[in-house]
Specification:
The structure is a homodimer of 206-residue chains.
Chain A (H helix, E strand, L loop, with lengths): L7 H4 L2 H13 L4 E2 L1 H8 L3 H9 L5 E2 L3 E3 H11 L6 E6 L3 H8 L8 E8 L8 E2 L2 E5 L3 H8 L3 E4 L3 H13 L4 E4 L12 E4 L2 H9 L4
Parallel strand pairs in A: 4-5, 4-8, 5-7, 8-9, 9-10
Antiparallel strand pairs in A: 1-3, 2-3, 6-7
The structure holds a DNA duplex (24 and 24 nucleotides).
Amino acid sequence: MLNDKIPDIIISRLPQYLRALNWLEMDGKQTTSSQELADHLGISAAQIRKDLSQFGGFGKQGMGYSIPYLTKELRKILHVDHNWEVALVGVGQLGIAIANYQGFQGRGFNIVMGFDSDPGKIGKKYGNLTVQPIAGMDVAIKNAGIVIAMITVPAGQAQDIADRLVKAEVKTILNYAPINLMVPQGIRMRVIDPVIELQRMTYYLE
Amino acid sequence: MLNDKIPDIIISRLPQYLRALNWLEMDGKQTTSSQELADHLGISAAQIRKDLSQFGGFGKQGMGYSIPYLTKELRKILHVDHNWEVALVGVGQLGIAIANYQGFQGRGFNIVMGFDSDPGKIGKKYGNLTVQPIAGMDVAIKNAGIVIAMITVPAGQAQDIADRLVKAEVKTILNYAPINLMVPQGIRMRVIDPVIELQRMTYYLE
DNA sequence: TAGATTGTTAATCGATTAACAATC
DNA sequence: TAGATTGTTAATCGATTAACAATC
């Protein structure tokens, strides 16, 4: 069972469960049920139970799920039971906002390196990072063993940066430039593009 | 055929087609094929043809698709053949970065109103907006007939803001706070949460 | 005409749901 | 024990793919 390949569509829901659990815990709750999670997430209770059962039995019949326990298990499954060091490429207005954003803390990520091509920015500190020259990026990332990077450079430069990151042995890229970057097999890339989200919704407007 | 309800999973791919077409056009291309789009997007060519055929025959056998024509038709389908006025609630570091972001222009959105509770920010200009006091938000949005809003306030305030936006007759909310907001039936809400995207990928890391 | 690529059908594949025995 | 809720199976539902006739 655990050796079966779990479909990505199931994996994509686990972080949502984790976020909902976090929220319930802050509400002071100790336990929850598949039904309560379903109400919060707009997903059926059956599906939540089925998803979780791919990884083991985390609940107790009649009782539901312990929030701290299920949280811990989900964090293990998603490999966020420790913090990953993350590099940020492009320390413009958006990059600075991301570096200062508190929401990564405690959810598995720590942005510890930032790179920019503007000499005026070198040495400045935002959150946990100090801006370094982009020329030294490849070596710095490789030496630090960093495997996760966020791209916040203009769209025209994003593919070039992605290519360099892949050479520096980065395996996971979160891309804020609104283009589909080409990356080799084995490299995971996701795009954050607010316009895509908006356009998905305007279809339903008059 | 056109009267059938189109599944949301198909709608969710149309903005991606639009973005890929945009990119091909900037490369100087005049026409494309389902295969070329497939290569760019990591989606099968058959699926792209099937998706598009839900809305009509936009291609020509042997020739492929005219990029300007298909772009125009997709923009019509998604209702982004004109610009929507958008309100931004919370003009902090992230809000300012979004207001100044050029990527909305020409893709159907114009952020024309911004609200913040900090008196020191009132009257400041970012992109196409001037910051207004959040106390007047409800009336201002309703009077302007704005139906799309972005929430960039801290997580603890986001639900309250969402409730107020719904009362002001906003129909579509893009939420940057990392929580699942509760909104009534008929209101569309999507969350932008970079941590969710990262956690989906760390599952595949060692 | 020959070659290419669409639009569409039927077959396959996979995901979701309903239902309930197991059990806390 | 009675009530509640899980974990799991089987049935349903829906989405994707393969294949090809239509046609530019």
